[in-house]
Amino acid sequence: MSRTARPTHGAEATAGLRVDSYNLALMRADGEGFVGDLASQTAFRELLDEARKHQRTGKDPFGKTPTFELGKREIDMALVGGDADAAHLVHIAVEGHAQRLVEVTRCFLAQPEWNDVEAIVLGGGFPKSHFGALSIRRADRLLRNARLKVRLCILDEDPDEAALLGWSSLLPEDARRHAAFLAVDIGGTNLRCGLVEHRLGKAAEGHKARVLEHMQWRHADDAPARGEAIARLAGMLNGLNAQARTLGVDLAPFIGIAVPGKIEPDGKISQGAQNLPGDWEMPFDLSAALASHLDRIGRRMPQVLLHNDAVVQGLSQRHAMRKHKRWGIFTIGTGLGNASYSRV
Description:
Layout: E1 13-14, E2 17-22, H1 41-54, H2 72-80, H3 84-109, E3 119-123, H4 130-145, E4 151-154, H5 159-165, H6 173-176, E5 180-186, E6 191-197, E7 210-217, H7 226-247, E8 251-259, E9 262-263, E10 269-271, H8 286-291, E11 303-308, H9 309-315, E12 326-332, E13 336-343
Parallel strand pairs: 3-4, 3-12, 5-8, 8-11
Antiparallel strand pairs: 1-2, 2-13, 5-6, 6-7, 9-10, 12-13
Helix pairs in contact: 1-3, 2-3, 3-4, 5-9
């Protein structure tokens, strides 16, 4: 989407950049699921669970706590806390995950949409942990050893904010005339809303943007129905709208929503939303369902646009990819999101 083009859901271009692909659903050769799921955060926990069952060299550092109930901090402490036997278990899972990440990378690079990609940004919640970052560094070393030219790098931005900040590159022209806008990141575990100051006058690629206020709901703990989730989301957005008025922030009548899946031109999600609370795929229309619950921003009802969450996270990193003609992103969370870009 150029600055003068009419804003659309799932925009395929923004100023100086083209979105070549996103949400590629590559099937595994054995037909047992998607290639990307081999390197998801879920996959790491499966590897750690296997290590706990069959590879222990001492007492299980996690006791009787099921692997899928462990917090990232607990796993990190086992890795760096000084107990060699505990660290051994995590290192086994890290090595297995790194090898899987290399396999996933090779599969994506073999696709026409990813041909000549020079660098891949790793986002999502996984790289925030010590064990996640170590797995990525290890995978990068394995790729170097295999003489593959692609490099892996961790997202500079806080991944909790990246899919909010990235909307700065997708703002419609009239929204750019205001100081700030509302953005949403809906994942398989959390729902985040932010009041974002775009500061495009300071940096045209959006990397000076900042989140002024935010709200978060861990919806996975509540397992809400779709209608309840929409009402809760609207309440959070209306709350941030009110905060903007209180703070005297010049808020654009615009809301950008980053979600997993394939976004059609009419804003409906055609595939890939299986981890969201309830059935969010077409014919359900998220923007229309949300609009009926929203307050006016100023004198206008806000425009709501959707895009894929990996695309938006990647756009928050575009300034760091300036030297690359083609680059991509993997977002490692409940699943593995993906997108690729070209400079134009």
